[in-house]
Amino acid sequence: MNDQWTKELQERIQKIEAGGATKYHEKNAEQNKLFVRDRLELLLDPGSIRVEDGLFANCMEEGLPADGVVTVTGKMNGQTVCVMANDSTVKAGSWGSRTVEKIIRIQETAQKLKVPMLYLVDSAGARITDQLEMFPNRRGAGRIFYNQVKMSGMVPQVCILFGPSAAGGAYIPAFCDIVIMVDKNASMYLASPRMAEMVIGQKVTLEEMGGARMHCSVSGCGDVLAKNEEEAIEIARRYLSYFPANYKQKTSKIEAKSIQEGIRSIEEIVPDNQNVAFDMKEMIRAVIDADSFFEMKELFAKEIITGFARIDGRAVGIIANQSKMKTGSLFVDSADKSARFITLCDAFNIPLIFLSDIPGFMIGTQVERSGIIRHGAKMIAAMSEATVPKISIIVRKAYGAGLYAMAGPAFEPDCCLALPTAKIAVMGPEAAVNAVYSNKIAQLEESERNEFIQQKREEYQEDINLYRLASELIIDGIIAPERLRDELKERLELYESKEMIFSERKHPVYPV
Amino acid sequence: MNKVEASMAGTVWKVLVSEGDIVESGQDVIILESMKMEIPLSAEMDGKVSKITVNEGDFVAEGDVLLELVGI
Fold first, then answer.
1. Around Cβ A295, how many Cβ atoms within 10 Å?
2. Interface pTM (ipTM) of the complex?
3. Which label site among A95, A409, A449, A484 has the fewest CB atoms less than 10 Å from its CB?
4. What is the average pLDDT across A166-182?
5. How far is B27 from chain A (nearest CA, A)?
6. A360: distance to nearest CA of chain B, Å?
């Protein structure tokens, strides 16, 4: 072949791979941002095979290398994955028609290969000057979101947000299973502060409007807050290690580890007094393999804990009430958080473990006005529909609809087991005695009142006695706290072949 | 100045300090009662209790200020 041709090709490739102008690389560095190709280096397995399509997109135009997006298929933890990554050095990562076409194509590849799809987002949004070519048509930007919806539950979809994700572009994270946001740099908003001031007259900072910390702690649009880009990429790699490549597969069991050293026993962790809070995270660490906990939405709706872990090397999803935060009652946000997590685990064949210590759904005007009933319905629907192995452990209290939401006996868990500290009832003894006997109590003389209440509470306690519940086969067993980890280990192994179809229909009418 | 706010709706069960008391960061100052659970609320800084805005038995909503602290 003509040497000159090869030389020209090499030069062109080099130029494209260098991304945008030097000043934009410098600006990136100032903001502690990595160049897109360096991000990919960290994300994919070192030295592993990878292929890139559309490198020459828009190469007839000056200053638009790869049209501002890199799309590759490569290996991550040994698993094939598809990746789209915005190049913030090229017109601030904005989308032109070829950018959009490349994103659509890599999504199509992920669907055909049935492998995880990652979105490395750092984009100012649409190139308004190119709107007719990239916005409204059949293969315009809308198709990216349409594809995401189609792929949801088929293959894992992961978003790492390194910079802005504005306007329509903000829907890429919205349709992903997990959104990892880099503190200070990542942001998500429908309209920028400048636009908001112009249109509705509101003056705010970008951080207030759509900063990473706000989204991870207040709005719930973000799942994990990362200190920097390197950490964000590491988090994505860790996250996918709990997942199979697609909905047809199961996560492989890895080498088991024993529990973290120095953890107190469950007996020591769980107080007998039902009115006193304890740290459920410590209890989780007392049953899982050391260092295997990956928490989702750690900063959001903290009264419920949702996260992945490994028990005896097997991946599980844990949903646990945190009495230390807002008594562990379920609120609007915590119900949403749980529903979302349950759906995620169920989609990818990850068994669920519920650890209950719940006084119930929160009551009062504030939550009623926010629609606690319809939000609670989302959680109960998601939990009912889950067909993965479903293990319900009553750690301490499971009162009222709290029992239902935490996979109580009526919701076909594969087992519902209680620790000796468990209490299952419509409500606690104090509230129940008051509810049933309030008229009677009011009529009694002051001197008789306390004795009467005490007597009725004791009768109530007897009524909800754990052995009575076990005798009536309401629960499947009572287990000693020190047996819990082994019990989970064994049941997870025995339930592996579980296969069931929940219901016959097109799809449910989802509570929202 | 630093404020201690109700973390959720409930009743003020115990006020553990008086105006003028010196408290340390992390010290429990008020215990709320909600959903039949005790919810201890602690000071977030070392300081002096400058104002207590609630009495035992009061109903409080999430975010209500219960107590104010000033640095010393």
1. 16
2. 0.89
3. A449
4. 91
5. 16
6. 8
